[in-house]
Amino acid sequence: MRFLKGHGTENDFVILPDPDGELELSASLVAAICDRRAGIGADGVLRVVRTKVSPEVSDLAGEAEWFMDYRNSDGSVAEMCGNGTRVFARHLVDAGLAQPGEFAIATRGGLRRVSLDVSGDVTVDMGLPVVHGRSVAMVAGQEFEGLHVDMGNPHLACAIGEPVVQLDLTHQPGFDPGVFPSGVNVELFNAVGPARAVMRVYERGSAETRACGTGAVATAVAAAALSGETTGSWTIEVVGGTLTVTLTGDTSYLAGPAVIVAAGELMLAE
Ligand SMILES: N[C@@H](CCC[C@H](N)C(=O)O)C(=O)O
């Protein structure tokens, strides 16, 4: 099986081209591929499959030729992945499967429009963030309150007082299962200046990652709310680089670099 490896601000993915949807991608195979010692190593897998042969999203086939089938590194399925969408778009263009410029990608969270610019940055229209109210996360024995933001997938973005670099994010934060019955991605951030935040994230299904695109948008929404704003452009510093989030009131955009770094043949099998 051919694979590629790519990342967006060091949120890294194994890309599996499977245009006709022939691959049986079990949770255990995904976990084996993402294993950083015994596999290739990644935060998740992006299966590249034609939308029309993907029953989950085949209704989107008229608008998007390709479906990003995203899996977390533990093999679980997620609705959306912002950085994954950007890396997926980069792969489609590099592989000649899409024209540079603007096009749509099908995800479980719906259609996402992407555009590539000459600098190499990829921007995704992430849709309108949906704010559900406040909830709490327990991180290393401390309780933090945050904003519950739905980006297609669930987020709890918490502004905290202590520097995020000092946090112990080794373990899955505690959360209210009544609020998040399918789990949650937890962002911890420091608002560090006008329209700028430093963020770390513990992702559902993947542990701490060096960036999370949907989490960056959730963080921008929570940081904007702190200063009574709902629109504007936010710089989100993540462990793996810098992302730009623009909130328009009607939708949100996520922009940043996305690169393919390797290609090869996968020897792992079920
Ligand atoms: N890294 C992603 C989010 C991936 C999915 C997430 N772990 C979930 O289970 O919802 C991003 O860049 O958005």
Topology at a glance:
Blueprint: E1 2-8, E2 11-17, H1 27-34, E3 44-50, E4 66-72, H2 82-94, E5 102-107, E6 110-116, E7 121-125, E8 130-139, E9 142-150, E10 154-159, E11 185-193, E12 196-203, E13 207-209, H3 213-226, E14 232-238, E15 241-247, E16 252-257, E17 259-265
Parallel strand pairs: 2-3, 10-11, 12-14
Antiparallel strand pairs: 1-2, 1-17, 3-4, 5-6, 6-7, 7-16, 8-9, 9-10, 11-12, 12-13, 14-15, 15-16
The structure holds the ligand N[C@@H](CCC[C@H](N)C(=O)O)C(=O)O.
Structure overview:
It catalyses: (2S,6S)-2,6-diaminopimelate = meso-2,6-diaminopimelate. It is found in: Cytoplasm. By secondary structure, the protein is mainly beta. The chain folds into 2 domains: 2-126 and 257-265, Roll (Diaminopimelate Epimerase, Chain A, domain 1), CATH 3.10.310; 130-250, Diaminopimelate Epimerase, Chain A, domain 1 (Roll), CATH 3.10.310.10. It is 13% helix and 44% strand. Strands 5, 6, 7, 8, 9, 10, 11, 12, 13, 14, 15 and 16 form a 12-stranded mixed beta sheet that branches. Strand 5 (102-107) and strand 6 (110-116) form a beta hairpin. The longest helix is centred in the last third of the chain and has 14 residues, at 213-226. The chain is globular, with a radius of gyration of 18 Å. The two termini are 12 Å apart. The relative contact order is 0.18. The model has no long low-confidence stretch (mean pLDDT 97). The ligand N[C@@H](CCC[C@H](N)C(=O)O)C(=O)O binds at residues 11, 72, 78, 81-84, 153, 185, 203-206, 209, 212-215.
